[in-house]
Write a sequence for this structure.
């Protein structure tokens, strides 16, 4: 799985993603500078977490105009796998590769903690290894992860089964207490209609080693590996 | 020269936790008559443009492309001509 | 003396004797700019003129110390060719004025200190003290400071993994905000900020210079009064995004040949950075203020030289390396001005449009401040107040665990990213944080400690206890303490009682560090924490780093398995003064605080490391604030397992056994079959141990006195702030 990890000036999960992909999973990975304009050598592109340009105006607002985003858009349109994590999710929405927007957390506070996710569908490139209803435990770490879409968009997302992850209680129930940021319908991650682009607020790259508290994040990356091998067959 | 003031606000249907929190704070301080607070962003943009119509069009474009996110936000622009701040001895803020 | 001079001296917070010393050193009257530069560098904040003599007692050397005090931060060898770089610093005064930005720029400053050494910052810890939260103003300070720490660290991308928060009326209006940063660097890339080659080019990189915080260093060295609001410097606003770029650029620069030195611009801005760089290298420096990019118009040389604008670094390079350095800055879209050169003159010369506007000998400016030795006074010791015996231990335990000083800190630390960089093994909330050293199986244990009430009752014993507790916290994870940083937060040292506290506290720090063989490699002193004649309680904060050779040998703080046996190691004495228990009962703050036998502490810690190293312990938790029952309750909550204890007996009152805070104690759990080993190990180290109970069930149960469900306990513990 030839992986590119996009680095904007204020990205900080780039090294964590590289660690997960190349050290833990043993897959080839390289950093992609935000000024690059070709992703032709890659099979998976990750937009990692961070504060791409300080995010003073709006998370991801400036990043979407970086030269690399044109290449990411082309790459996605050609069916390449794109995973936006946290700030990467925000950037994918700003770039209109994914629907909706992420508002400030309902608590008005940054939240860094472990949460439970319920896998809603196993059609997306990043959940083919999971079964619907499976629970994954991963950390979140964001101040603006409150998923919003207008009614019409929301219905369309649900109808097309684009909701990939929802926040849930440890027993899988979707409760208000289990929702860490006020997201509509506990939405934690969504896919585009084709399923090759996924954005999620939780950090799978932080959940790849027992030493650091859990390995459920591996399911996301392993799914991508399997999705790619299917394409190859 | 023109100075544009851009007011970016969340669309009325979008939940505004910051506004709600501020409203709570105001109630605590005894401002009981406050029924709603909506928080937003204020940007002041100074442009070296000669024509008002052109200046307005440029700021509209800025707001559409970057300053506001049409999925969740509305914006309003106020524009006024100003003198050259340097010539007038005014310190840029 | 002329009125005008008096006023100038007041503006820079120097006295007449100091002015005379300046005139003697330079052979003439200084001009306004020169006086301003002296005022900044001879301020308490920069020159340590009141504390320097005392600090000489501290042990600063050790076989693994690569860099002791005097640089941007200290550095210690951790093997594998790596060094850990760390320092703690105060930002109390700025936080009192604008808590969010004060705390944020405090974090920014300490991060720069670490990456200036060439090290990548891997952790932030914060030691905070506030007045009680029932006051709106204290709450405003508390919320602002917490938000500021998170706002800066989260955006920058360095995890905030630990620290402590205490509340006491003594900190009302005068919060203590200390930030510690820890970084890692390869030995051969450890950089010292010393400009030792004449002819080198001096670059100013990062933010433009504005009229921020002029006289901030001076401001931090005088007490605050009603007039502070008027003469206060412009509040500095931090830009963590720019800081991140600066950090990445400095780390990249650090790989280049021909880069002589990197120095952070902190208190006293360009004056301090340029002077210290050149003076450390026994050279001189010429600065052209015209070349400094400004954020505002009409700035004078005085403004430029004394501005404390954030996110700026000085980089000194050989002339032939300038182009390479500029490529790095360009990559990160950073602006760099060539503002001067290193000279052989031993002087700092400031020019504006070709004219020399300041010309001072560096030795006098950096090292020449006359040291102060104020009068010290020591109050009489009061007996410990006697309170009625405990009637309802269960209710007291619930009140204690819900009290602001003991309840869970989760509502605070969950607003900090404590995981970024993917190395956090034990995050905030435990005895010490534990981080993986990337690329190795080693761990670094990190903590800050400083119980303010013990120090208030007895600065010597209290400071010893802070060192001992920090070391114990580290040892509980399985790591071996290796070095110390410290921040001494005190009131106005011109008051004899305050200077007495400082003197005793430093003596305690020195004795404890010597006994535990812990070098002090960096530190900071913050004096004049006084508002309207009210001084903060004496607040030494000890930051400590420990090394765990193999992370698989780490020891958690929570109960792990039902059926494990729980023991108390160490001795409980009749020590209640300074306890959270007595504060809960409203007793006056008097008496002799728990004392630390450094010899016993050494043996206890050796015994712990021995036991953890042999894999005997399943969990270990320091007994500290709140006493034994609080420690047991915490281990139960951490592990989500109850405890059945038939009763706690000992040669002390029930109050002291349950809630006393005797030092040198740890609770541990062991699998039943390893008990004989534990007993033997403790006997070898002459450490008393007492069986407490068995892990299991849904309750915390102590004899017939206490039976509380974990749910009830957790609810009380998780009381919101």
């Amino acid at each position: 799985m030839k992986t590119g990890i996009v680095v904007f000036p204020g990205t900080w999960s780039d090294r964590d993603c590289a660690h997960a992909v190349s050290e833990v999973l043993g897959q080839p990975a390289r950093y992609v500078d935000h000024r690059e304009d070709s992703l032709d050598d890659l099979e998976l592109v990750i937009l990692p977490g961070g504060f791409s340009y300080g995010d003073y105006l709006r998370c991801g607002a400036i990043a979407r105009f970086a030269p690399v985003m044109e290449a990411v858009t082309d790459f996605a349109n050609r069916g390449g796998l794109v995973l936006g994590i946290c700030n990467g999710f925000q950037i994918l929405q700003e770039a209109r590769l994914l629907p909706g927007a992420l508002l400030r957390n309902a608590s008005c506070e940054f939240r860094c903690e472990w949460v439970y996710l319920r896998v809603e569908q196993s059609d997306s490139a990043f959940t083919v290894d999971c079964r619907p209803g499976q629970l994954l435990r991963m950390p979140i770490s964001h101040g603006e992860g409150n998923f919003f879409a207008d009614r019409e968009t929301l219905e369309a997302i649900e109808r097309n089964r684009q909701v990939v992850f929802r926040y849930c209680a440890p027993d899988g129930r979707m409760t208000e207490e289990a929702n860490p940021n006020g997201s509509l319908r506990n939405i934690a991650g969504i896919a585009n209609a084709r399923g090759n682009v996924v954005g999620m607020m939780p950090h799978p790259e932080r959940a790849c080693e027992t030493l650091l508290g859990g390995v459920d994040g591996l399911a996301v990356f392993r799914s991508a590996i399997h999705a790619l091998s299917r394409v190859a067959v | 020269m023109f100075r544009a003031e851009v007011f970016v606000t969340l669309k009325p249907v979008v939940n505004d936790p910051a506004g709600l929190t501020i409203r709570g704070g105001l109630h605590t301080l005894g401002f009981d008559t406050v029924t709603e607070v909506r928080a937003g962003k204020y940007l002041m943009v100074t442009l070296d443009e000669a024509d008002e119509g052109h200046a307005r069009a440029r700021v509209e474009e800025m707001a559409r492309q970057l300053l506001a996110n049409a999925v969740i936000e509305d914006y309003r622009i106020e524009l006024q001509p100003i003198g050259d701040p340097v010539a007038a001895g005014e310190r840029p803020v | 003396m002329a009125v005008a001079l008096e006023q100038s001296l007041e503006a820079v917070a120097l006295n007449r004797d100091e002015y005379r010393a300046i005139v003697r050193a330079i052979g003439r009257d200084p001009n306004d700019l020169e006086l301003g530069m002296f005022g900044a560098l001879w301020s308490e904040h920069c020159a340590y003129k009141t504390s320097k003599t005392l600090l000489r007692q501290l042990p600063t050397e050790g076989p693994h110390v690569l860099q002791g005090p005097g640089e941007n931060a200290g550095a210690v060898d951790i093997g594998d060719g790596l060094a850990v770089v760390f320092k703690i610093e105060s930002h109390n005064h700025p936080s009192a004025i604008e808590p969010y930005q004060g705390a944020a720029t405090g974090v920014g400053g300490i991060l720069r200190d670490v990456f200036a050494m060439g090290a990548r910052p891997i952790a932030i810890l914060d030691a905070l003290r506030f007045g009680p939260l029932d006051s709106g103003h204290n709450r405003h300070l508390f919320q602002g400071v917490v938000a500021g720490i998170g706002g800066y660290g989260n955006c920058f991308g360095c995890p905030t993994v630990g620290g402590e928060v205490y509340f006491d009326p003594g900190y009302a209006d005068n919060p203590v905000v200390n930030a510690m940063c820890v970084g890692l660097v390869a030995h051969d890339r450890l950089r010292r900020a010393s400009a030792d080659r004449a002819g080198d080019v001096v670059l100013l990189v990062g933010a433009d210079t504005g009229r921020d915080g002029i006289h901030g260093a001076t401001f931090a060295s005088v007490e605050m009064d009603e007039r502070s609001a008027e003469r206060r410097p412009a509040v500095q606003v931090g830009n963590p995004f720019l800081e991140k770029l600066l950090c990445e650029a400095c780390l990249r620069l650090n790989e280049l040949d021909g880069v002589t030195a990197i120095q952070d611009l902190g208190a006293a801005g360009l004056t301090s950075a340029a002077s210290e760089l050149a003076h450390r290298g026994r050279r001189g420096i010429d600065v052209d203020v015209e070349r400094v990019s400004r954020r505002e118009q009409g700035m004078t040389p005085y403004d430029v030289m004394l501005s404390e604008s954030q996110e700026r670094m000085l980089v000194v390079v050989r002339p032939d390396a300038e182009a390479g350095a500029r490529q790095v800055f360009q990559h990160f879209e950073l602006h760099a001005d060539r503002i001067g050169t290193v000279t052989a003159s031993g002087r700092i010369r400031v020019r504006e449009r070709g004219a020399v506007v300041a010309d001072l000998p560096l030795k006098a400016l950096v090292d020449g401040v006359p040291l102060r030795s104020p009068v010290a006074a020591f109050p009489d010791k009061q007996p410990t107040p006697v309170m009625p015996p405990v009637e309802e231990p269960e209710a007291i335990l619930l009140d204690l665990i819900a009290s602001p000083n003991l309840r869970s800190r989760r509502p605070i630390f969950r607003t900090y990213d404590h995981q970024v960089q993917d190395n956090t093994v034990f995050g905030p909330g435990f005895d010490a944080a534990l981080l993986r050293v990337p690329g190795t199986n080693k761990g670094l244990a990190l903590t800050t400690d400083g119980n303010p009430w013990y120090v208030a009752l007895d600065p010597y014993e209290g400071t010893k206890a802070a060192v001992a507790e920090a070391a114990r916290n580290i040892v509980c994870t399985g790591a071996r303490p290796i070095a110390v940083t410290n921040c001494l937060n005190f009131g106005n040292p011109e008051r004899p009682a305050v200077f007495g506290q400082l003197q005793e506290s430093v003596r305690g720090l020195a004795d404890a560090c010597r006994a535990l063989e812990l070098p002090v490699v960096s530190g900071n002193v913050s004096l004049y924490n006084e508002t309207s004649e009210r001084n903060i309680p004496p607040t030494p904060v000890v930051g400590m780093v420990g090394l765990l050779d193999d992370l698989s040998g780490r020891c958690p703080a929570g109960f792990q398995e039902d059926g494990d046996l729980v023991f108390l190691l160490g001795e409980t004495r009749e020590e209640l003064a300074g306890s959270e228990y007595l504060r809960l009962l409203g007793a006056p703050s008097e008496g002799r605080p728990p004392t630390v036998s450094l010899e016993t502490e050494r043996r206890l810690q050796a015994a712990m490391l021995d036991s953890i190293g042999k894999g005997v312990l399943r969990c270990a938790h320091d007994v500290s604030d709140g006493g034994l029952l609080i420690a047991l309750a915490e281990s139960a909550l951490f592990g989500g397992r109850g405890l059945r204890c038939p009763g706690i007996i000992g040669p002390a009152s029930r109050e002291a056994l349950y809630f006393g805070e005797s030092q040198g104690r740890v609770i541990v759990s062991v699998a039943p079959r390893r008990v004989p080993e534990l007993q033997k190990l403790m006997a070898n180290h002459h450490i008393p141990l007492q069986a407490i109970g068995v892990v299991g069930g849904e309750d915390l149960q102590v004899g017939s006195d206490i039976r509380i469900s974990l749910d009830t306990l957790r609810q009380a513990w998780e009381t919101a702030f």
About this structure: Strands of chain B lie at 2-10, 40-47, 73-81. DSSP finds two helices and three strands in chain B.
